[in-house]
């Protein structure tokens, strides 16, 4: 009995803000400024969602985020793929060092990194640009992407490659015909991870992007909070919900691995 | 230094029974470097190098808008930090925040993990729901709770009104006394899922036979928890709480969205303070010095804490 009470308490703590977000996103402006707001909107409306995306800032920001995150995911996977193959199949000190960086890179405050990165990017003319942001997101996702992908490569039995070699396949042919098809789920998972870490990222985007037109979704949403005015809460809530959808897809996809704990260190808040 | 010879151990562990040829090892090493290069190059250029440079900047008077050829000023920044009230304030707030969130998060997550590890109904549903806050972008978590804490249109104040506790209504994020506890709760809400998942995975590694044997010997639930679960879980607990502490100490986005450090600096975490110094006032060197101090503190606290926890565990 006590167990169910505890579970209930937890679910309330968990769900209470979520339900409120959901409720706010369906409320018309008049209900948002009501003295005593209700949990369930009297006249639910989809207007906030429409507004969130037709209003220049959020619509454009979502498009920016999509571009930046997609590019980051593609570039990350492309350069992580050869490296993780090397890490999984050959023993090398360099590999150990690279994997050790995963842990280490989690410990440093970003402010130490951001100032020099900002200076470097400005020197090469990439500050305040999506290209600069993509570069950072790639580097930021790489350690874990390498770590994850080399695990997937290790799971492919080496014998398969040796058998192909015995049958006279060249290294490249082996990779293309044997390794890549088996690696597909791993590549998708890695790409999704990189996509999400870019999609959710706030600090670097806040510092690097100065032109409002180039802002990503988290930055635009944060700015939206700033200008507030109670009537804007509706589109803000709607935009926030929409911004969560890609991550939810990612977590649904990774559910199995998450509950086994092997991924648990990956996504930090 | 010996150059590759035919007798050297090949650093490639390919299938047994194949003899390494003289040039094989060298060409394989070249292949490794070639394959690693596209990843290592950007990591070194945009994370190792900036880190080193950032640490160096902490000993300079680098400022925005000035030439990057900065003057080395030694410990000047650190002397200034020591007498900077705003720094001490942010340091204090950062500690309260990081300890508060980490401890609360751990206690609640451990309870939840123990719960979800049992054969109870709705377990599957609860497990899925439990990770939802984790899936949300930190900025969205901030917005979500801003809506809950909103002084007029917020859920919390309305809840207190409905249960007749009108006196408890307040501007949660804007009030000096409630702002920090309010953001700590949000931190717990956002960080709990990850801790829960890690602890749950750890619990699944606790041998069931031990529990069964102890139960046969008449051990109570509490005794089994104290003597079996907790010791087996100790390494996981040490790892996740220290990581949580570091992540919390370094956190930025959530509180930036909720309060931006206000009211009156009551929620000014060290990262927020550093951000303001660097990008509002342009004091790059000073902000970098603060980053260095944070690294030293984190390493020192971790060393002390880890030593103690490990001793307890043994």
UniProtKB/TrEMBL annotation, chain B:
Lineage, top-rank taxon, reads Bacteria
Instruction: Give the transmembrane ranges.
Output: 31-52, 95-116, 128-148, 179-203, 284-306
What SUPFAM superfamilies does this protein map onto? MetI-like
What is the membrane topology here? Answer: Multi-pass membrane protein
- According to its UniProt record, where is this protein located? Cell membrane
* One Gene Ontology term from the biological process aspect of the record: transmembrane transport
CDD domains named among the record's database cross-references: TM_PBP2 (cd06261)
Its family?
Belongs to the binding-protein-dependent transport system permease family.
- What is the protein's given name? Multiple sugar transport system permease protein
